[in-house]
Amino acid sequence: MMAGFFADTSYWVALWQPNDGLHEKATFLDAALVEQDIVTTQMVLGEALDSMAGKGDYCRSYAVQMVLDMTDNPFVEIIPQTDAQFRAAVERYAARSDQRWSLTDCASFLAMEERGITQALAHDRDFEQAGFVALLREARS
């Protein structure tokens, strides 16, 4: 899959939570990107599911269903967390102690670099610091 967009945790959480401050921007982008290729990772989806854990049964079940639906969506690629990917992310994390990048961020940046993706469905400034465009910072709804 050649993908034009990487989806970060903040994007998925904003889509799943109508009261999230980024919900409008995320839904605007979601509508604009219909049938566009989107890449995310198991690490990102793990973070997104973790953020839904304490929000009640409905939110938790809804998020699980969204992730399961993604596995059947031909426009979404979910990159698995392999040993090699994890090790490369840890090495990037160790090498960039000058940044506040999380391990998941490092894995995301590596996935984007490997696929030539420059645009992230993300709000995190870390994506901009790593040289990518964080579309949730720029989108207008």
Uncertain segments are: none
- Assign an overall shape: globular
The gyration radius over C-alpha positions equals: 14 Å
Largest sheet data:
5 strands, parallel
Order of helices and strands: EHHEHHEHHEHEH
Strand order in the largest sheet? 3-2-1-4-5
* Count of alpha/pi helices: 8
How helix-rich are the residues, as a percent range? 55-70%
Termini separation comes to: 28 Å
Beta-strand content bin:
5-15%
- Number of E-type strands: 5
Averaging pLDDT over every residue, what do you get?
92
Q: Which class best fits the helix and strand makeup?
A: alpha/beta
Question: What does this protein look like?
Answer:
- The protein has 141 residues and is α/β, with parallel strands linked by helices.
- The protein contains 8 helices and 5 strands, in the order βααβααβααβαβα.
- The chain has helices at 9-16, 23-32, 42-52, 57-70, 83-95, 103-115, 125-129, 135-138, and strands at 5-7, 38-41, 76-79, 119-121, 133-134.
- Strands 3-2-1-4-5 form a 5-stranded parallel sheet.
- Strand 4, helix 7 (125-129) and strand 5 form a beta-alpha-beta unit.
- Helix 1 (9-16) packs across helix 2 and helix 1 (9-16) crosses helix 3.
Topology (elements, then pairings):
Layout: E1 5-7, H1 9-16, H2 23-32, E2 38-41, H3 42-52, H4 57-70, E3 76-79, H5 83-95, H6 103-115, E4 119-121, H7 125-129, E5 133-134, H8 135-138
Parallel strand pairs: 1-2, 1-4, 2-3, 4-5
Produce a short descriptive summary.
The protein is an alpha/beta fold.
